[in-house]
Amino acid sequence: MSGGGRLTALARDYALPPEAPARLEALLALLAQDPEAPSSVRAPSRAADVHVADSLSGLAVPELRAAAMIADIGAGAGFPGLVLAVARPEAEVFAVEATARKARYLERAAAAAELVNVRVIAARAEEWAAGLGRMDAVTARALASLPVLAEYAAPLLRPGGVLVAWKGARDAAEEAAGARAGAALGLAPDPVLPVRPFPAAEHRHLHVYAKREPTPPGFPRRAGMAVKRPLGSDRSRR
Questions:
Q1: Do residues 94 and 67 lie in contact, with contact meaning Cβ atoms separated by under 8 Å?
Q2: % of the chain with per-residue pLDDT over 70
Q3: From CA 207, how far away is CA 167, in angstroms rounded?
Q4: pLDDT digit string, tens, across residues 95-109
Q5: What is the pLDDT, as a whole number, of residue 232?
Q6: What DSSP string runs through 12-42?
Q7: 73: how many CB neighbours lie within 10 A of its CB?
Q8: Number of Cβ atoms within 10 Å of the Cβ of 162
């Protein structure tokens, strides 16, 4: 199936708005043509599955489907954030990206797809003070380990909000560390959701953490600390 045909099928399967296929096609056209596109998968025929279908699989999480304010951290080439903005035009999507070159690309991509509900935040998640405690959902795809993602997301989430992390094969040690980090941050893991966004996809999972308690004072820690001393490990001392 061609990229355009696949996008039409995905729009039908996910009950997306009528303008969604054209907007998704615009995202993939820029991805293929822009020399600064930050992705190794750029051909529309592949990107329709690897990027778009994979991003849309997050809509299996009811809280994400209903979210009014979404922060996509480490937004990169815009997956899943810009795809979710296409799927949910009534939601406000913040594409949080610290690398200036990638942030500029995200601005071009949002403009190409005419996404008026996207704001690009050229900052680290730990330094984005305006987002603290406001987000209904935080998303992250191929970004960092679960303990690190939990620390990035927890301060941004409102009570009842969710972190949705796209991951590959399950890792029991990482999940245990993620649960310990979440407990320190007011997050609780929900059951892991296996997804198969396209036929060739293997070992794809959505890890969901819900904000059950307030995040303690002192978070987020200063930039880089979540990676250098991840919570839930013996390196987590501040």
A1: no
A2: 97
A3: 7
A4: 999 999 999 999 999
A5: 78
A6: HHTT--TTHHHHHHHHHHHHHH-TT---S--
A7: 30
A8: 22
